[in-house]
Amino acid sequence: MTETHTESGAPVERVVIENCAIATVDAAGTEHTSGHIVVAGNVIESVAAGPAPAGLAGVTRRIDGTGHLATPGLVNTHHHFYQWLTRGLAQNSNLFDWLVELYPTWARIDEPMVYAAAAGSLGVLVRGGVTTAMDHHYVFPRGAGDLLGAEIRAAAELGVRFTAARGSMDRGKSDGGLPPDFAVESTEEALLATEQAIDTHHDASFGSMLQIAAAPCSPFSVSTELMREAAVLARRKGVRLHTHGSETVEEEKFCHELFGMGPTDYFESTGWLGDDVWMAHCVHMNDSDIAAFARTGTGVAHCPSSNARLAAGIARVPDMLAARVPVGLGVDGTASNESGELHTELRNALLINRLGGGEKALDARQALRLGTYGGAQVLGRTAEIGSLEPGKLADLVLWKLDGIGHASIADPVAALVFGAAAPVTLSLVGGVPVVENGSLTRADEDGIARLTRTEARRLAEIAGLA
User: Fold this and answer.
1) Is-above-0.70 flag for pTM?
2) Is residue 10's pLDDT more than 80?
């Protein structure tokens, strides 16, 4: 085989993975019962059945994947890292009651707390097969420090690909919103800070490790002016837009009372439908709402565990997929999904959608696609991630399926989705290991646990909960 060289002239280093089952999640749904993957530098060079070609140059590592399933790395499309510090609270509340109870505590966060929470959230995500993470941070108390920068630093340290959605709120309690006034920004402050985040951090290049999205929090915590101007800003800067949408019946009632229309019509009136937009939750969507999302290419972050935890309802994911709405999976904040793991959402998406729509509502391969290619769709990165194909980034996971938890399930994709949470033997981000044998390679898990306990106690003391 002809030897490939990098731009500097050095030979490309290759990693060869063999003897594993492979679910490529490509357009054809190609799978191999026993195949190989060749990684050259930071991209996938080949994926096929059987052993790797003989005579490959520059092979630095060979991995025997016997007993494993290889899939694309998981893509998380909605999260709130800071909530790691308030897990287990407001256990029996719906969304609005939960927010009312927790906002006074969240309004006390600062930079060290957010860094610790991001490290904990990302550590669990990465250890569970996530190679592209996303966070929607919208709480910026005055004098709290560089909160977005704290998240970005944590993501870089763990080696995960990251979309930081710079959130905002300009509707405090005195304006009819839920958060305390000192935890919100003015409209002008929010727009300026969002633009600064884009100018400082956004990288649109192939293989980017960091991208920024403009992300006002929700219709009930943001003014119409901020929604409209954030959309204008995002499109001027060429970044994506993200917010919460149609999560609860209370939100729908709020929109009708305040704006004289439902959430989807409101979003369209403010420029918030389009193929550069994705919304979290979208639980309460009627046929015309789904048609509007399909017509405009607006994406959805489906968060089944959080929706169940807060009793928000069951999103119409099968109907969205049938209409060709882009749908990915999200953990949501760990104060409403205390596990903080995305790989368990594959199973929960399957089960909850069957509970709502019957035994054929969603199958195992559709669930895997939601967590991989679907996530890449809503983040606008299908040319780079979401499937195992030559030329795409080498973001992939080896799931161990020959242990007691999965050994009697012949179909490896069914084992991964229907079965217990599978251990991750290896996870690569751009060809670089971020998990080996179930453990993070670039962070001390025990150290992260100690740090998050310390910062959670400090927040509780400051908020008067301790």
Assistant:
1) yes
2) no
